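Hi R.,

Here's the chain you asked about this morning:
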Amino acid sequence: MQAKTAFFKQRSSIKSKLLFYIAFCISLMYTDARFKYLETIRTGVTIAIHPLRTVALIPAKLFNDISEVFTTTTELRRENARLKQIGTDSDRLLLEQKSLLVENENLRNLLDLIPKVQPSQTVAEIIYYTRDPFSREVIIDRGSQNGVVLGAPAIDAYGVVGQVVRLHRWTSEISLVTHRDHPVPVQVARNGLRTIVFGVGYDSSLEVRFMPIDADIKEGDTLATSGIGGVYPANLPVGQVTKVDRDESFPFARISVKPVAKIGKHRQVLLLSRSSTFPPHPEQPNADERIRD
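And here is the predicted structure, written out as tokens:
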């Protein structure tokens, strides 16, 4: 009986202690939430254990640093090998290009063709868009005083951006290739098929018009400037064919093209000079002269 009484007394003591500590914790949480007195204690404890935390983290930090050194060294070796391979390939391609340029120049001399002239380049920065939000035109900070000429093509690092359509003394206005009905003479890089690509009014798409449904053009074809007309130099990337819809009820195929230039994302463009080697357009004879001929 005495053992049972001691047991119940012990159990009652544990409950009392538990209730006391619960009430004590609740009171501490309440007073801390009300008066914020534990914030100073937390700050002091954090400052006190900071050196211990720093010492405890030293092995992990050393391990991470050593691992990073080995990883960085391995990546640098791979990158170095890749760059060496790219340099070797570039040197080979440069030699081939020089050989082709010499061969091309000799053939042009034999055929008595007009020599090709490399266009001059001017870097310009886009300062603002035109007031019309539906007009795909931009204003650049270069004008006639900087050597810009009317009709000069504008490109970025990826392809054709547009063409100078208005020229001022210190600024110029460029019509983007995505401007509605802006034409660019192009050819299919795969087979040399010539056509004209037009803007549709928004930055993500162009279109090829008046292409017969049986023309040799397909999705994935790259379109580059043909050089015809003397505005755009030849072989500048313009776009990539994304869709070819051949409906036999229509005489022409519907061809969608994605521009390769970063239209709407660039801040700088490169202006190229127009070719001055093209002869002027012949005068159109009137009706009487055509009849006599």
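One quick note: The longest strand covers residues 121-129.

Cheers,
M.
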